[in-house]
Amino acid sequence: MNLQLRPMRLVEVLAALAFLVIATIAVLTIAPNGITSASGDAGQFTQTPSGPLGPADRDFLVKVRQAGLWEIPSGRQAQQRAGSARVKQVGLQLVADHIKLDQQVRALAAKLGVGLPNVPNPDQQGWMAELSTKTGEDYDKTFADRLRAAHGKVFAAVSLVRAGTKNNEIRAFAQVAVDVVMKHMTLLESTGKVDYAALPTPPPPSPNPSK
Question: Where is the DUF4142 domain positioned along the sequence (predicted)?
Answer without folding.
Answer: 56-186
